[in-house]
User: Fold these one by one.
Assistant:
Number 1:
Amino acid sequence: MYTWFTDLYASLLSRYLARKLHHGLLFSGAKGIGKFSLAEQLSHTLLCKQPTVDGPCGHCQSCHLRAAGNHPDYHILESEKQLGVDKIREGIAKLSGTAQMGGNKVLLIPKADTMTEAAANALLKTLEEPTANTYLVLITDSINKLMPTVLSRCEKHVLPLPSIQQSLNYLHEKGVKEADEALLGAYGNAPLRLEEALEGGDEFNYRVFSDGMQALLVSDPKMQPQNLSSKWQDDAIQVALWCQLQAQQNYIQHQSPRYYAHYSACVEAVRTLQHPGVNKSMVLFGLLKTFQR
Ligand SMILES: [Zn+2]
C-alpha cells in the first residue's frame, strides 16, 4: 500500500477493530493513485484471523491462504470491458452461506463503474442486506458513472491525490529519477500514471512530446507540424491536452495574448478530436501550426 493512504487506512482499520466499519465501501478518486492497493490491504486485514492496529498478522492460516492466492472467502470481480449481471450474480452467490474459513467474506470490485445497469441492480440487495460477515469494496475512477442507488448504499471515500512531494518521493525511490513537478503535472499529478508512462515502455510519453515541441519551436526541419502530426495522431487527444497544459503554464507566467490564443486553440482541438471519424492528423497539424506563431 502507498504511504499517502496511511492515515485513511489507520482510521478504517480502527473502525473495523471497533466493529464499526460499514459493510459496503466505495473508494473513488483519480486514476493512478493506487486505490486498489488500499482496497487490497484492507481486504487482507478483513480476512486475517488476528488483525491488530498494524493490519493483518501475516501468520494465520487465512493470511497464508490469501498470500498464496487461495483464500476461499476472498473474491475479486474483474471484467475486460463491462461487468455484466452474470458475473455479479456469480460473485454474490459466493457470498451466500457461511465463510469457509469461519471469518469474513470479502468481495472486491476494482472497476465498479463498468457494471451494467442490470449488474448494478443485481448488487443492490446484497449492498442493502448483506449476508453475515460480508464486506464489499467497490473502486472507481469515475464515480459519476455509478448509479445513485449504488452510491447511496455505500460508505463513500473520495481518495485525494497525493501531495507533489509524496509523489516525487515515491517516484524517486522507485528509480524514476527524471520525475519532476512539471512531468508529474502532465500526468494529472497521479504518480502511478507517470510511472507507467515512463517505465512501462510507452513509446509516446510526455518526455517525447516535450522534446518534440521544443524542436518544433526552434524550427528543427525534422520536427515540423507535418511530421509531428502524423507521428502523434494515435495519441492526438493526449497531445492536445499536453499542449493545453503548456499554453496554460506559459500564459500564467507571461500573461501574453499569444499564449491565450494557443490555449483557446487547444480547447477547440480537444473538442474536435472527440468526434468520431475526424482526421486527427489534420487537427494536430493545425494546432501545432498555431504553436509556431
Ligand atoms: Zn492473519
Number 2:
Amino acid sequence: MQSTTYDTTPEESSRAVLVSLVTDEVKRSGIDPVYSLEELVALAETAGVEVLTTLSQNREKKDTRLFIGKGKVQELKLIADELGANTAIFDQELSGAQVRNLEEELDLKIIDRTQLILDIFAQRAKTREGIIQVELAQLSYLLPRLAGQGRNLSRLGGGIGSRGPGESKLETDRRHIRGRIDELKRQIAEVEKNRVQQRQRRQKSGTVQVALVGYTNAGKSTLLRQLTDADVYVQNQLFATLDPTSRTLELPGGREIVLTDTVGFIQNLPHHLIAAFRATLEEVNQANLVLHVVDASSAMLNDQMKVVNQLLEELGAVDKPQIQIYNKKDLCTPEQLQLLPENEWNLRVSAYDEKDMDKLLHRLQEELTGGTVKYRIPAARGDLSAQLYKMGEVISQDFDEEYIVSEVRLHKGESEKYAYLLEDYKV
Ligand SMILES: Nc1nc2c(ncn2[C@@H]2O[C@H](COP(=O)(O)OP(=O)(O)OP(=O)(O)O)[C@@H](O)[C@H]2O)c(=O)[nH]1
Ligand SMILES: [Mg+2]
C-alpha cells in the first residue's frame, strides 16, 4: 500500500501557549469556554506538548484576518517571547488564511483544536482501518487549507523548505491529495463491506452485542478489562482507545455476549473525524444495548453526558436501550454521589470494585435474557423476519412450506418494542 506521511505533528519539543477566543457564537453554543480550554491543555499534553500558559479573549466575533484581535496578537507575541514558546494552539478551528497570517505576525507554529485532535488520533491509530480513517480525516481537513500555506503545512509531501511550496508544487500537491482521498475512500468502502458481513454473521448467529460508549477517559476500556480480562490499553489520557475492541463476556447465567469498547467522545469533535470514523462508530448502531459510561467524579459530568448523547443522536443510536454507568464513584465526594440517580437504568460503580462489576453483570443478564417464543412467519415477509433479530436471539429456524418457524430467545426491553408487530404470528 502506498503511504504518505503528512506531518502536521507538533514537534517533540513543542512549547506552547494555548489561546481561546470567546465570541458570542461560542457563548450561544452552550460550550463552557473555560472547561474547553482546560480540555485543550489535556489534549496538548496528550500530544506531548509542553503547555506554558493559556490566554483568552472575549470578543463579539472573530477577526477575519487574525482570528483574535490585533492587540491580543501583540500580547500573545510578548508572552510567547518571554516564555520561549515556539507554538500557539487555538481552541477553535482556524481558516487556512488565519493560520498563515498568525504565523507571519507571530513567527510561531500555529495549530488549532481540530488539528491537535487529528494529530492525537494519528499517533493512536494502530489498525489498518484506523490508520486509513485518520489519514482521510487529516487530508479532508488540509485540502481546503492548502493555499500558499504557512510553515506547519509546508512539509506536505516531505522535504520542502520552511516556507510554503511554490504554486506549481501546490497544484501537484492538491492533485496528489485529491487522488489519495479517493483512494482512501475506496479502501474505507471495502472495510465497510467487511464490517457489514461480520455484522450479518453475528446477527445470524444471534450474538448479542453491548457497546461501551462515553466521553474520553470515562473508564470504558477499564470496564472492558475488568469484565472480560481483555488486554486493552487503559490510560489516564484522552483518546487512549481508537479502534473498537470486542470481547466475549459470559453472563452469570452462562450466556455469552459480545462487549465492544469504542473511541471516546469529546466536545467539538472534528467533523471530518466523525465522517471518516462513521464505519467504526456504526458498531454502536449494531448494539442491542448501549452502556453509557460516565466519569461521575468530573465536575463537567452533565456537559459530557450531553455531548455523548448528541453524538449518539447524530449516529442514529439515541433510541437504543441505554444504561448509564456512573463510573469512578470511589473518586466522588458524598455530595456528588448523592446527586447521582441509582435505579435499573442508572448504576453507580467503580470499575475496580468487584462487587460493582457483579452488580453490572447481573443487570446485563436481567436486561438481555428473556424467555423463548416461537413465531411462524410467511417466508416472503423479510421485513417481519428482520424484526425477529431485533427482538432477541434466533436460536433455531425451520421451514414449513411457505413459512419460516423461528424460535427466539427474547431480549428484555428490546423485544417489548417489537412484540406487537409479530403478535399474530406467534405459534
Ligand atoms: N479511581 C478510579 N479510576 C478509574 C476508574 N475507572 C477508570 N479509571 C481510570 O481512568 C483512566 C481512564 O480510563 P480508560 O479506561 O482508559 O478510559 P476510556 O474511557 O477507555 O478512555 P479513552 O479510551 O481515552 O476514551 C485510567 O487512568 C483508569 O485507571 C474507577 O472506577 N475509579
Ligand atoms: Mg479507552
